[in-house]
Design a protein that fits this description.
With about 210 residues, the protein is an all-alpha fold. The protein has helices at about 5-10, 15-30, 35-45, 50-65, 70-80, 85-95, 100-110, 115-125, 130-135, 145-155, 165-175, 175-190, 200-205. Helix 5 (about 70-80) runs antiparallel to helix 6 (about 85-95) and helix 6 (about 85-95) packs parallel to helix 8.
Length: about 210
Amino acid sequence: MSEAPNESLKPLAAADPEACVEALRAIAAAGKADEPVLRRVAKLLKDEQTIVRAAAIDCLAALAPRDPRVVNACIDGLKAEHRNVQFASQQALTKAGPAAIPLLVELAKEGRKSVRVATLIAVLAIGDPAVPALVATLARQDERGRQAACELLAMFAARGKPALPALRKLLLDDPNPGVQRAAAAAILAIDPASAPAPRSGDSREGGPAADGP
């Protein structure tokens, strides 16, 4: 049993990126690996070759999708400029499921459009289980995080209906006008028939009732 992991480690040290990628695919196909192999694969998440980094993400996602090393590596991968690394990270975070949502909300604060789009795709790929996870993050987020969570919930449209009570509470109780606007927009996107009434004084603060940008 111990020989297989040791044999698996040898190709991971190969100078040829293609050989390393093939070894990673073989490890992933086996469906399980010992801790030494996982640690060696994790080191490849920082490899200078993008094809190796993407293959390492795929491999770890197949073996331990909820491992914090994998989730954190995928969050970093979404920031990458290389599309194959971003795509591998999105696919891996789908396997991680709702456990990845808090970090994805943090990433949604990122200013770069490419990162925000990659984050949105990852959240939507997690599917309906992401909705209660997003709601759960609201109480633990700062103003920008609450706004980002509302924006992500809005993208679920009618599938986001379980979030309506929390969004209405934000609209009524949150002190930040930006969060109020994001909550109002999310409610409208999820249930267009229930356009939220503006809170008294919101227009003065530029809240949901404001006509301007």
